[in-house]
Amino acid sequence: MFHRKLYGYKDHSNSGKYTYKRPGLIQDIEGKKIIDAVLFVESEEAMKKVTDLLQEYGTKTYVFDVLSEIEF
């Protein structure tokens, strides 16, 4: 359930006839998954939403301020 909330998922209905993309938190806040266990978000508000979700599931979180030229 955690993975779906964070990254979203594809939902299938009517025996796979229809497919819907359900967005996760990363899409909602326009974040980016860099590599496994590394997320990039632009604002303090977005960081707060992500850390709240991670702490809800009891994960360890480390937050760093990074200067980057990654374009979304």
Give a short summary of the structure.
Helices cover 32% and strands 24% of the residues.
Task: Give structural attributes.
4 strands; two-stranded antiparallel ribbon; 72 residues
Please describe what this structure looks like.
- By secondary structure, the protein is an alpha+beta fold.
- It has one domain (2-56).
- 32% of the residues lie in helices and 24% in strands.
- The chain has 3 helices and 4 strands.
- The strands form 2 sheets. Strands 1-2 form a two-stranded antiparallel sheet. It has a two-stranded antiparallel sheet with strand order 3-4.
- Strand 1 (9-13) and strand 2 (18-22) form a beta hairpin.
- The longest helix has 13 residues, at 44-56.
- The radius of gyration is 14 Å and the shape is globular.
- It starts with a helix and ends in a 16-residue tail after the last helix.
The structure class reads: alpha+beta
Query: What fraction strand?
Result: 15-25%
The overall number of domains is 1
Q: Helical percent range?
A: 25-40%
Q: Choose one word for the global shape.
A: globular
Largest beta-sheet characterization: 2 strands, antiparallel
Oligomer status: single chain
For the residues shown, what is the average pLDDT? 90
**Strand ordering within the main sheet:** 1-2
Uncertain stretches of 5 or more adjacent residues: none
- So how many helices? 3
If you compute it from the alpha carbons, what radius of gyration comes out, rounded to the nearest whole angstrom? 14 Å
**Termini gap:** 26 Å
The total beta strand count reads: 4
Helix-strand topology string = HEEHEEH
